[in-house]
Design brief:
The chain is an all-alpha fold and 215 residues long. The protein has a domain of 104 residues. It has two helices and no strands. Helix 1 runs antiparallel to helix 2. The longest helix is centred in the first third of the chain and has 132 residues. The radius of gyration is 54 Å and the shape is rod-shaped.
Length: 215
């Protein structure tokens, strides 16, 4: 009985020793795995930090590039607008000069017509004075001739005056239509440039968002 007891105690002691050793080995293995995981985690964190720094540098480079693109687009649009404004201003000055030129021609023609009418009236008075002192037999003939001549001259002058007025009126209407068309083209061009500017800005914003999201 004592021998069996000793054997059982020895077996129990061996089992407890084995369990203790197994526990110690398990704890050491766990500690080793923990150290390895900590090293892997530290390396992973360091890689992530390096990637963040690289991404920050890339983001800064993209911001600088986008800022330069915006400046170039704004400069080009500004130059185009200034060029169009100068062109419209030149067309406006030319149109005003043309209108003034037409008005001057109208005034000159009106003065010539008035002078012609004045000379015609003066001729009528001269003819009337001469007719009053001329002989009786020439009175009717001269009067009829003068009347016919004056009538022809008046009719011709009236026809010429009306034709010239019609021509100048047509030129004036055409000039007004040209002014309206230039104003319309200017408004359409400004709207087009504004839309193009907005589309360029939106495209740049979308491109930047796409780059950020893909990264």
């Amino acid at each position: 009985t004592n021998c069996i007891t000793v054997i059982l105690l020895t077996f129990q002691t061996n089992i407890l020793t084995e369990l203790k050793n197994w526990k110690l080995n398990l704890i050491q293995h766990h500690k080793l795995q923990m150290r390895q995981e900590k090293k892997k985690h530290a390396a992973h964190v360091k890689n992530l930090q390096n990637e963040m720094e690289n991404l920050k540098e890339l983001l800064h480079a993209y911001e600088v590039s986008i800022s330069r693109k915006d400046e170039v687009i704004i400069t080009n649009l500004t130059q185009a607008l200034e060029k169009k404004k100068r062109r419209v201003e030149l067309m406006r000055k030319f149109t005003l000069w043309r209108i003034q030129h037409v008005k001057a021609k109208q005034e000159e023609y009106a003065i010539r017509i008035a002078d012609t009418h004045f000379r015609t009236a003066l001729m009528k008075k001269v003819w009337a004075a001469w007719r009053s002192v001329s002989e009786v037999r020439w009175k009717d003939e001269v009067a009829r001739a003068c009347q016919l001549r004056a009538t022809d001259v008046c009719v011709q002058l009236t026809n010429d005056y009306e034709a010239k007025i019609a021509e100048l009126t047509a030129v004036l209407e055409q000039t007004k239509a040209e002014i309206l068309r230039l104003h319309s083209e200017r408004g359409q061009y400004e709207d087009t440039m504004k839309k193009a500017f907005m589309r360029g800005v939106c495209a740049l914003n979308l491109e930047a968002m796409t780059v950020f999201q893909s990264k």
